[in-house]
Amino acid sequence: MYIRHYHIYLVVILLFQISCTVSKDPRRNEFIQLQKGRIKDDTSFVYTLPFELNKKHRLVQGYFSHFSHKNRAALDFKMKRGTVICAARGGVVVRVKQDGKTGGLNKKYRPEGNMVIIQHSDGSRAGYWHLKQNGSMVKVGDTVLQGQTIAYSGKTGYTAFPHLHFIVWKSAASGWQQVATRFQTSTGIKFLRPFKVYKRK
Questions:
Q1: Across the chain, what does the average pLDDT equal?
Q2: Boundaries of every domain in the chain
Q3: What is the pTM of this model?
Q4: For the ranges 31-35, 45-49, 55-59, 190-194, which has the lowest average pLDDT?
Q5: What is the pLDDT of residue 25?
Q6: Where does the pLDDT of residue 65 fall: very low under 50, low under 70, confident under 90, or very high at 90 and above?
Q7: Could you tell me which residues come within 8 angstroms of residue 198 by beta carbon, excluding any fewer than 6 positions away?
Q8: Which long-range contacts (CB under 8 A, 24 or more apart) does 107-116 make?
Q9: Residue of 38, 132, 168, 185 with fewest CB within 10 Å of its CB?
Q10: How far, in whole angstroms, is CA 152 from its chain's centroid?
């Protein structure tokens, strides 16, 4: 039953990608080109995949996907409730919410989304969303290392199924700006693409 629902979800995403208008974000094209490997970036920080060593997960949504990322340069990793979430980059915890209890594919659930937000040394921040109720292993003010366990995944907030929603942003003159992130994977350093499975090396 779960597998069937997951396949239905993938079909819904594909239909949205075909039928919906694209995001108006001026950096959308650049991010998509990075994701597809059509342009290169060898200077940005290399993130660790946000789960345990030698584990693998499928990326079900990428940058500006039209199902729920139309205006977000975010990544969704499919994972079961209770999966260990690790810091993709070290920093200081600046926000934790873990009292959310429910989730579903309705915007009314958005305030229920549990999260951990970590600020990095360059001022950028990473957000880890849809976490399990009381699933945070860190608190505001904690310093965490890259690869350290910070939380457990769940299905809280605006979400169709259990997964980790990951996004990085930084302050800019025009406000907060989303950041494209490349990762160390078992097959090299790369920007992640939807529907592919990635293993943490």
A1: 86
A2: 2-199
A3: 0.84
A4: 31-35
A5: 65
A6: low
A7: 49, 56, 57, 58, 59, 183, 185, 186, 192
A8: 107/158, 109/156, 109/157, 109/158, 109/159, 110/157, 110/158, 111/157, 112/156, 112/157, 113/156, 113/157, 113/158, 113/159, 114/151, 114/154, 114/156, 114/157, 116/85, 116/150, 116/151
A9: 38
A10: 14
| Size of the chain, expressed as the number of residues it contains | 201
Using only C-alpha atoms, the chain has a radius of gyration, in whole angstroms, of: 16
Please name the helix (run of DSSP H) or strand (run of DSSP E) that holds residue 71, with its range, or none. none
Fold of the domain built from segment(s) 2-199: Glucose Permease (Domain IIA) (2.70.70)
The Cα–Cα gap between 110 and 127 comes to 15
